[in-house]
Design a protein that fits this description.
Layout (H helix, E strand, L loop, with lengths): L27 E6 L4 E7 L7 E8 L15 H20 L4 E6 L1 H5 L3 H12 L3 E3 L2 H13 L7 E6 L4 E7 L2 E8 L3 H8 L7 H14 L13 E5 L1 H13 L11 E3 H12 L3 H4 L13 H15 L3 E4 L4 H10 L7 H15 L4 H17 L1 H4 L3 H12 L12 H11 L7 H11 L9 H6 L8 H18 L7 E5 L2 E5 L8 H14 L5
Parallel strand pairs: 1-4, 4-5, 6-9, 9-11
Antiparallel strand pairs: 1-2, 2-3, 6-7, 7-8, 10-11, 12-13
Helix pairs in contact: 1-3, 4-11, 5-10, 6-10, 7-10, 8-10, 12-15, 13-15, 13-19, 15-17, 15-19, 16-17, 17-19, 19-20
Length: 517
C-alpha cells in the first residue's frame, strides 16, 4: 500500500487516513440476506492483506421457502428475516460498527413485494438493505474467490438457497457470468417431498438440473478450466467429507475434493432419512434437509464439465463486498496472497516487522542458494516465507513456548495463497525455529495432508528457519555458500549471532542437504 512500512510492535498505530485504502483499521459490517440464510460478518483490516472476521452471526429465515403463489414473500418469512436483522443491528451497535454493507439476493430480487420488504427493513432495523442483481451477485462472488485463491482459467459456481451463480474466469479475471434458478432450498421444496427422497423424485430432480444447466455453454469456459465452488452447499459437502475422515485441518477453504467423493456422498445422503443426516459428522443440522438437492446441482455441474475435482472456496459474496470496500487490485498470485496475508497477521498481532523481515530475507536467501540440492518449488518457498514472517507471532500469547504458539497461529490463521499442505509445512517449520526437533507424532497427525517425503521437507525448512533466526539480526547480512559439500557461514566480526541456534541449525541443514560436517 503505497510502499509504507508496517508499524513496529508496541508503536502507536497510524490512523486509517494515513493509508491509501478507503477502509483500514476500523470495523466493517457485511450483512448477506440470502434465500436460505442470513449472515452478519464484522471485519477488520490492516494496511495490507485481506480483511479478517472478528464476529460472525447467522440465522436461517428461509425467505424462498415463504414465497406465496403470487410471488410474494410471505408474512412469516418476512418476520423471521426481520427478527434476524434486528439481532444483527444490536450486534453492530455493540461493536460500534458505523460502516455497514447489507445486501439481499435472489429471493428478494424475484419477489413481487421485494421493494416493500427493503423499506420495512430500513424502517424497523435502520439497515439500508439493497437487492443485488444476478450480475452483481456473481461479481461479488468472483471478488471473494479471487481475493483468496489464485485464479487462472476457472469456472466458479456460487450455490445458494435460491440460485446458482456461474462465473467464467479467464486469465484470472471475470469474463462472463450467468444466474440460474437452481438454489438448493428452491429445488428441495419443488422435487423432494418424501423422507428419504424416492428414486423417482431424485430422477426428476437430476433431469431438471441437466436441462437447466444447458446455458452454461454460453459462458465459453475453457476446457482446462478448474471448477471452484463457493456458497453454503459446497462448504457443507467439504465439512462433511472432512468430518467423516477426521481431517486434521479445521477449515474448508482451499480443500480439493474428487468428483467420485461427491458422488459417493450424494448416494449415501440421498438414501438416509433426515434424522440420520443430522447426525453425520461435519454436516450442519440446519442444512441436512436441503443438502441432497444442493449436491445434485454440484454434481450436475461437475458431470457437465467432465471435471475430476472441485476446489472449495471459503470466501464468497461477503468477502467480495469487504474486498471492494478496501479497493485493492485483483487478481493476485499465491505468493502475493501469502506474503500480504502474513503481513496483515503480523500487524494485527503487533509483531516486530523489522526482525521478521530480516529473518525472512536470510531464509529465502538460504533457500534459493541451496535449491539445486533440495529441488523444492514455489509451494515450499512460500511456506518458508510465511513461517519466517510469523515465527515469533506466538509471543502475543507468551514468550515461553512461543514456537508452539506460533505454530498454532500459522495453522489456524486464514493465510490465503497457501495450500493445506503449505499451511502444515509452515506451521511445523515455525515450531522448530528455536532449534527444537520435530516429534514423529506431529507428522503422523497430518498424514492426510502431507505427501511422501514431507518429513524431510519439514526438517529442511525448520533448519533453514532456525539458522535464519540465529543470524537474522546480524548486519551486514551473513554470507552462505556451499563448497565441496561443505556449508560455510561467514559472519562479520563480533556479530551478535545466537551460537546455540547457529550450531544446531547448521547441523540440521547439513543433514538435510547431505553435506559434510
Amino acid at each position: 500500500m503505497g510502499g509504507r512500512a508496517i508499524p513496529r510492535g508496541g508503536a502507536k498505530r497510524p490512523s486509517a487516513e494515513t493509508f491509501s485504502g478507503r477502509w483500514v483499521d476500523r470495523p466493517l459490517g457485511v450483512i448477506d440476506v440470502g434465500s436460505n440464510s442470513a449472515r452478519l460478518v464484522i471485519y477488520r483490516s490492516a494496511p495490507v492483506g485481506p480483511p479478517w472476521s472478528i464476529h460472525e452471526s447467522k440465522d436461517y429465515p428461509r425467505l424462498v421457502e415463504g414465497v406465496e403463489a403470487d410471488g410474494r414473500l410471505s408474512r412469516p418469512a418476512r418476520a423471521r428475516a426481520l427478527a434476524a436483522l434486528v439481532r444483527f443491528r444490536r450486534v453492530l451497535d455493540e461493536y460500534g460498527v458505523v460502516q455497514v454493507q447489507a445486501v439481499a439476493t435472489s429471493a428478494v430480487r424475484e419477489a413481487s413485494n421485494g421493494r416493500e420488504f427493503l423499506r420495512e427493513v430500513s424502517r424497523r432495523c435502520g439497515i439500508r438493505l439493497r437487492s443485488l442483481s444476478g450480475e452483481e451477485e456473481a461479481r461479488f462472488a468472483y471478488l471473494g474467490v479471487a481475493s483468496s485463491l489464485p485464479l487462472t482459467e476457472n469456472l466458479i459456481i456460487d450455490l445458494g438457497g435460491g440460485s446458482l451463480e456461474s462465473i467464467s474466469v479467464q486469465e484470472g479475471k471475470l469474463y462472463r457470468s450467468l444466474s440460474l434458478p437452481l438454489g438448493a432450498l428452491r429445488l428441495h421444496q419443488r422435487f423432494l417431498r418424501h423422507d428419504p427422497p424416492r428414486i423417482r423424485e431424485l430422477d426428476a430432480l437430476q433431469n431438471h438440473i441437466d436441462d437447466a444447466l444447458e446455458p452454461l455453454d454460453e459462458l465459453k469456459v475453457s476446457r482446462r478450466a478448474h471448477v471452484v465452488g463457493s456458497g453454503g452447499t459446497t462448504r457443507a459437502l467439504a465439512h462433511t467429507l472432512q468430518g467423516m475422515r477426521d481431517y486434521p485441518i479445521h477449515r474448508v477453504h482451499g480443500f480439493t475434493v474428487r468428483t467420485r467423493e461427491v458422488e459417493r456422498l450424494y448416494s449415501f445422503l440421498s438414501e438416509q432419512p433426515l434424522e440420520t443426516r443430522k447426525e453425520v459428522p461435519g454436516l450442519s443440522a440446519d442444512r441436512a434437509d436441503i443438502i441432497v438437492a444442493g449436491l445434485a446441482v454440484v454434481l450436475g455441474v461437475l458431470h457437465r464439465r467432465k471435471a475430476e475435482t472441485l476446489t472449495i472456496s471459503g470466501c464468497g459474496i461477503r468477502e467480495g463486498i469487504a474486498h471492494e470496500a478496501m479497493g485493492r487490485p485483483l487478481p493476485a498470485s499465491a505468493r502475493e496472497m501469502g506474503f500480504s496475508g502474513a503481513l496483515a497477521a503480523l500487524w494485527a498481532l503487533r509483531g516486530d516487522p523489522s526482525h521478521a523481515h530480516r529473518v525472512r530475507s536470510v531464509a529465502l536467501d538460504l533457500f534459493d542458494r541451496t535449491v539445486r540440492r533440495h529441488w523444492l518449488g514455489e509451494e515450499e518457498r512460500l511456506a518458508l516465507e510465511v513461517a519466517a514472517l510469523l515465527h515469533d507471532s506466538g509471543t502475543v500469547i507468551s514468550y515461553p513456548g512461543h514456537p508452539t504458539h506460533s505454530s498454532h497461529i500459522l495453522r489456524n490463521r486464514m493465510l490465503y495463497g497457501l495450500t493445506h499442505r503449505g499451511t502444515v509445512l509452515a506451521a511445523l517449520a515455525g515450531s522448530m525455529h528455536e532449534g527444537d526437533g520435530l516429534p514423529d507424532s506431529a507428522l503422523k497427525r497430518y498424514e492426510d495432508v502431507l505427501e511422501e517425503g514431507d518429513d524431510e521437507v519439514v526438517r529442511l525448512l525448520g533448519a533453514i528457519l532456525a539458522l535464519s533466526e540465529a543470524v537474522g539480526d546480524v548486519r551486514p547480512m551473513p554470507r552462505f555458500r556451499i563448497e565441496r559439500r561443505q556449508l560455510r557461514v561467514t559472519l562479520a566480526p563480533g556479530a551478535p549471532a545466537d551460537p546455540r541456534l547457529l550450531a544446531r541449525g547448521s547441523r540440521w541443514l547439513r543433514r538435510s542437504l547431505d553435506l559434510e560436517e
